[in-house]
């Protein structure tokens, strides 16, 4: 699929996008306030986040006509693993909570500073990284990842380190190679096409189907450069 297949945005598409933004903010702020007592427990906080993400999916489908489809979930083993995912929009960070049993995201520390919302990220066990801390940040990430994996969770990491516009590519960061080398669990690539319909930062939302495609685990025992090249080839050659 290419960006040329995206339908043109008419006045109604823009109107629905603005309506979605308003309803999304109301849903998000209302959920965050009402669910504050769930912060007393990690399990409760996770349940609250899942409820909120399901609501986001319902709003996306009802207001702007965006649906989603998950493919290849059989490639995700039960229990601990690492999901190396493409990252084109915020939609996948919402939707992976409903696709995976126990996801733990690795994200930049600044996101946990968001008022109230950041509390849920921290309570849900997200691994926050200070990108300016160098080797210290890498060690913290590995400690957090190994603890989450030991508890049977799935680590979700974005190899490019940030959202990337659909059809573009950035070098993969060393974090995924460190996780692969130090954590003895399967690494599952996950390709998607959310950038066509959701976009990196834009308000405009285009109707369509966002596909999440889990791919077979990468082989074990690869050197760093081999791993990064394999991941890049599989993710960018997934046909989305």
Labels describing this entry:
Glycerol-3-phosphate (1)-acyltransferase; 240 residues; globular; alpha/beta
Q: How are the secondary structure elements laid out?
A:
Elements: H1 11-34, H2 42-64, E1 66-71, E2 81-85, H3 91-99, E3 103-108, H4 117-123, E4 127-129, H5 135-150, E5 154-157, H6 174-182, E6 187-192, H7 194-197, E7 208-214, H8 224-236
Parallel strand pairs: 1-7, 2-5, 2-6, 3-4, 3-5
Antiparallel strand pairs: 6-7
Structure commentary:
The chain has eight helices and seven strands, in the order ααββαβαβαβαβαβα. The protein has 240 residues and is of the alpha/beta class. The chain has one domain (67-236): Glycerol-3-phosphate (1)-acyltransferase. β3, α4 (117-123) and β4 (127-129) form a beta-alpha-beta unit. The longest helix has 24 residues, at 11-34. The protein is globular.
Largest sheet: 7 strands, mixed
* Sequence of strands across the biggest β-sheet: 1-7-6-2-5-3-4
Distance between the amino and carboxyl termini: 6 Å
Whole-number mean pLDDT: 88
Number of strands: 7
Could you give me the name of the CATH homologous superfamily? Glycerol-3-phosphate (1)-acyltransferase
Return the CATH class. Answer: Alpha Beta
Could you name the ranges where pLDDT drops below 50 across 5 or more consecutive residues? Answer: none
Helix segment tally = 8
Q: What would you call the shape? A: globular
The H-and-E topology, N to C, reads as: HHEEHEHEHEHEHEH
Q: What is the radius of gyration?
A: 18 Å
């Amino acid at each position: 699929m290419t960006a040329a297949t995206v339908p043109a945005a008419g006045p109604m598409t823009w109107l629905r996008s603005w309506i979605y933004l308003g309803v999304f903010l109301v849903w998000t702020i209302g959920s965050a306030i009402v669910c504050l007592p769930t912060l007393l427990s990690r399990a409760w906080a996770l349940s609250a986040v899942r409820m909120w993400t399901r609501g986001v999916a319902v709003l996306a489908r009802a207001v702007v006509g965006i649906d989603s489809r998950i493919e290849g979930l059989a490639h995700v083993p039960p229990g601990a693993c690492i999901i190396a995912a493409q990252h084109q929009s915020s939609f996948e960070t919402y939707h992976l909570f409903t696709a995976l049993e126990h996801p733990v995201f690795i994200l930049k520390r600044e996101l946990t500073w968001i008022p109230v919302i950041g509390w849920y990220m921290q309570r849900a066990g997200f691994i926050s990284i200070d990108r300016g801390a160098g080797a210290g940040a890498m060690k913290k990430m590995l400690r957090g990842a190994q603890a989450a994996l030991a508890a049977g969770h799935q680590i979700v990491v974005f190899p490019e380190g940030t959202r990337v516009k659909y059809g573009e590519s950035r070098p993969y960061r060393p974090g995924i190679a460190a996780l692969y080398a130090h954590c003895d669990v399967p690494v599952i690539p996950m390709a998607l096409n959310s950038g066509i319909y959701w976009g990196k930062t834009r308000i405009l939302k285009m109707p369509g189907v966002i596909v999440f495609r889990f791919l077979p685990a990468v082989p074990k025992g690869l050197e760093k450069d081999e791993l990064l090249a394999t991941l890049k080839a599989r993710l960018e050659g997934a046909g989305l």
